[in-house]
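// run 5 | inverse folding | seed 20
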């Protein structure tokens, strides 16, 4: 629950329920059949299409778009799910503007790519609405695999292992499966309970048991899992939050952006959530953007993102940055927090201007102050590593097949030192780790 500094202007109901519901409507409304046909008709169906190379999961994009154009959206959905079982979520949250759509030949020729993301959503939504699951597991192998973490990587791994006939137990520390998709993505990107609908779709294949409220290191040990299962896949994400390392960060008005987003995701009535009149978000990634935009959508009057480096270094895509600014969020670059202040005279954060120096980022000595009722930290998350697997630079070390340094243990997703921290990348890693596990168990 968002809490402000003592005496700060933090309250619920800044907007009516109707206003908040409208603000949190679908960011990109779905295409109807006619719109999808028109959008699909723009595709050149390239041979060796660059969009496929740009997709971390290697979806055959020209094929699924051709299937839509031919009036076969279910076939298109199957083409997508064969490579990316979470293709519905990825269609909603992937930065397609810097992946497949940026590589589109239409983008290079005209500055307007084929709407691959929206077409992918059209196809996957159509197939998910069918009553018959599109996959049937292979014959049971008698092998049992533990998947720890029910986020994108864990779900993708569990589904692929179940497809091969293995029995999977999927553990997660949270009350619901879904991981980042359920707890960490802006509500306006996945309205209508889509995250849980997708989890149900994945689990419909069978062969997967889910045990929630089970945390590695608290309720589970890696040694016990290795003893009881034929293989273990770790997809535990990054549960810790980096510290500001600035005086005052322990004050009541300072919170974690990931917790703010999770509270909003779980709220029955978002308008009932308290929000500050003035909000400062520290960070430059997707979490910072999501927290800032949603603060605005809840009725915050003045929202500022402050990032220590320049715009080109922000992990959030340019589309997301532009989205924030069109929603009224200010983004200030080249500044880092010096201290959080909450006294009778002022409440907020003092920042120091930064610059790129010979030895890296350095302060200029010049400071400024941003008033705030609430301060949200979005400066990255950290691994709460289990005993055993080798860790380097805060991530579990894996080889090309996602095997850890511990025999019989694989890992993927945000917890590993491989690839970008994107939903689609996590799905690819979970899928590929499952294939590696299957090869190891059936060799």
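// decoded
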């Amino acid at each position: 629950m968002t809490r402000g500094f003592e005496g700060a202007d933090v309250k619920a109901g800044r907007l009516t329920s109707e206003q908040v519901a409208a603000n949190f409507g679908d960011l990109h409304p779905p295409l109807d059949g006619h719109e999808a046909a028109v959008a699909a008709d723009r595709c050149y169906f390239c041979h060796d299409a660059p969009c496929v190379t740009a997709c971390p999961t290697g979806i055959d994009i020209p094929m699924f778009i051709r299937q839509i154009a031919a009036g076969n959206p279910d076939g298109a959905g199957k083409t997508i799910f064969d490579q990316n079982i979470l293709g519905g979520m990825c269609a909603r949250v992937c930065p397609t503007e810097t992946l497949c759509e940026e590589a589109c030949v239409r983008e290079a020729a005209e500055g307007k790519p084929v709407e691959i993301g929206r077409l992918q959503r059209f196809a996957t939504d159509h197939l998910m609405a069918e009553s018959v699951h599109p996959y049937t597991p292979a014959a049971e192998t008698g092998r049992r695999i533990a998947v720890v973490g029910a986020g994108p990587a864990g779900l993708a791994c569990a589904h692929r292992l179940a497809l091969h006939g293995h029995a999977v137990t999927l553990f997660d520390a949270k009350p619901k499966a879904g991981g980042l998709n359920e707890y960490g993505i802006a509500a306006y990107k996945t309205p209508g309970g889509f995250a849980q609908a997708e989890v149900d779709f994945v689990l419909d294949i069978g062969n997967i048991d889910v045990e929630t409220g089970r945390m590695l290191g608290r309720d589970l040990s890696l040694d016990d899992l290795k003893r009881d299962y034929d293989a273990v896949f770790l997809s535990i994400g990054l549960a810790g939050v980096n510290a500001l390392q600035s005086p005052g960060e322990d004050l009541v008005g300072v919170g974690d952006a990931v917790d703010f987003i999770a509270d909003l995701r779980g709220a029955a009535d978002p308008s009932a959530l308290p929000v500050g009149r003035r909000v400062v978000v520290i960070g430059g990634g997707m979490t910072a953007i999501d927290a800032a935009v949603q603060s605005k959508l809840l009725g915050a009057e003045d929202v500022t993102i402050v990032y220590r480096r320049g715009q080109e270094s922000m992990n959030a895509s340019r589309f997301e940055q532009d989205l924030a600014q069109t929603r009224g969020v200010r983004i200030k670059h080249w500044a880092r927090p010096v201290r959080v202040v909450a006294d009778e005279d002022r409440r907020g954060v003092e920042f120091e201007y930064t610059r790129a120096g010979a030895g890296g980022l350095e302060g200029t000595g010049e400071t400024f102050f941003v008033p705030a009722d609430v301060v949200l930290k979005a400066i990255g998350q950290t691994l709460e590593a289990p005993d055993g697997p080798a860790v380097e630079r805060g991530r579990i070390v894996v080889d090309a097949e996602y095997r850890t340094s511990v025999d019989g243990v694989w890992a993927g997703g945000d917890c590993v030192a491989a690839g970008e921290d994107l939903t689609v990348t996590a799905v690819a890693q979970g899928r590929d780790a499952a294939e590696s596990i299957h090869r190891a168990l059936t060799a």
